[in-house]
């Protein structure tokens, strides 16, 4: 940020009165321009037939991580709810209609000022189709997932926790629980979200 | 937003290519200025002695809702995690040190572009003190809570769900679970967060 978005005067970094952090402040109109973390919201769309469970992944057609696989997810928009965002992103990126279940993972990525949320979901049909931000959309069993080509650490963590919970539930009963985790550094340098 | 924060040129509202929403776009430098929801993070700080459980509330010294009571909470900052934000806000507003537990509530407030998260917490001591944004900080049993003077619907929903869960757990066992709710309109017109 270089200029005030209210009056076009140059801004400077300073700590406002009654604050303890550097902010972009406009000395002309007095506006303080706060910058806050963004939420990235997605779903874990599942299709289960004959005891075989598959999840829907999208191959990214955009940077960062062009060509890598991700769960459908994207930035939450003003005016929508977290669950509406999960459904919208699943529709936009994977052309898929889902029944949304409860929140499954909450992952902080403080070095990029993001919080990622993923909801469990059931595909209502398999008439999915790659959206404009995807090269390809496909269903994968756990064994088929291209683990070396997953776009973001938060997606890998969510998928691994999901299949781990699933195995436990099938063996011992119980239910899915919220997975909360903080990612302080890129897990694989050079492959982290920018 | 009236001017581009990168080049000071006037911005205009338009739908960029490959997008489907109105954004503030700069025709001079091409910057697209996205606006996204903000996260408000807080805690439910609990002090339990002789079977009597009390929660710590803050009387607001700032607008909106000056003079009304709230759980300690505030905007998440860049570079921090959701749990760090909950601890920081509890320290700043209530001068209180807590042990943070799991996420208790996730409340969407789409008409103000906010998502509110509250974590369960245990007070480590009762040497709390009003911070600069609070007039007063005090412990309340469920019966003592000034329900008519609660600052925000998300705080009231969180407190009611917390005591409801607590009663159920004491009677039937079990544990706290995540409460997710969407608030589409102010519960009490005129008293909603601005
Ligand atoms: Zn200004
Ligand atoms: Zn510009």
TrEMBL record, chains A, B:
Keywords: Hydrolase, Magnesium
Residues covered by the Nudix hydrolase domain: 37-163
Cofactor(s) listed: Mg(2+)
Hydrolase found in the keyword field: yes
Transmembrane regions listed in the UniProt entry: none
Homology family: Belongs to the Nudix hydrolase family.
Record's protein name: NUDIX domain protein
């Amino acid at each position: 940020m270089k200029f005030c978005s209210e009056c076009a005067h140059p801004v400077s970094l300073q700590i406002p009165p009654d604050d303890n952090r550097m902010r972009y402040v406009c000395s002309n109109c007095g506006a303080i321009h706060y910058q806050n973390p963004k939420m990235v919201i997605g779903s874990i769309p599942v299709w289960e037939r004959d005891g075989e469970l598959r999840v829907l992944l999208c191959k990214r057609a955009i940077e960062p991580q062009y060509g890598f696989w991700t769960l459908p997810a994207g930035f939450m928009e003003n005016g929508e709810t977290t669950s509406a965002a999960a459904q919208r992103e699943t529709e936009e990126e994977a052309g898929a209609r889902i029944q949304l279940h409860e929140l499954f993972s909450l992952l902080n990525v403080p070095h990029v000022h993001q919080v990622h949320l993923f909801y469990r979901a059931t595909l209502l049909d398999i008439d999915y189709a790659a959206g404009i931000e995807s090269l390809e959309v496909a269903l994968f069993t756990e064994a088929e997932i291209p683990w070396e080509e997953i776009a973001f650490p938060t997606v890998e963590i969510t998928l691994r926790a999901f299949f781990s919970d699933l195995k436990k539930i099938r063996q011992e009963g119980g239910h899915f629980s919220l997975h909360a985790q903080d990612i302080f550094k890129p897990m694989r340098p050079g492959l982290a979200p920018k």
